[in-house]
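Sample 1 of the test manifest.
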Amino acid sequence: MSGQILAIALTISKIFLTLAMAAAASRILRGPRAQDRVIGMDTLYVNAMLLLLVFGIGSGTTLYFEVALAIGLLGFVATVAMAKFLMRGEVIE
Amino acid sequence: MSTIENLPLWAAILISALLVIGSSLALIGSIGLLRFKTFYERVHAPPLGTTMGLFTILAASMFYFSLAQTRPVVHEILIGIFVTTTTPITFMFLVQATLYRDRFEGSDPLAGLSVEQPQVKTPHDP
């Protein structure tokens, strides 16, 4: 019983997060200017991180947690580098 | 490592509710990113998923692994700390860059902003 409830919730949660990733990817494709694409990429990787955490609950291993941590750290660096590039034209001056 | 089947019922309901609430918030944030008209409105939508959505899914993960391994598992707090400290910095840099680019192209969204008329004129997309 409790396993069924959890399995249904995990499936709903995976579907919602996949739709959220699709919305962010659509903003990357449609975004009229560069900063819209950057914020779409930021949302895309945060949603991917949440999806990996949900996969980790579903599979019962803590391996997915480490992948989510790496995505969280590297995505921050990527977005800040993009913002610096939009501001200055180069990343490291 | 216990399996998914022998969780108590209240724990399964709690974890399921936290998961569905968190993923719904992330979905609402992403739909807002898709539907708002200008960039300065769009930048407000995704933090719905990166704050409350992230916290509820992290809480579900912490509850699940603490019950499954019968010991407190709190290493998910690391992701919470990193993401909540880095998201405002990221968006602040991005809005600064956008403001700079808009001013460089001659459409200042803050031009004419005064106390009597505190309405930000956001330039619409071409």
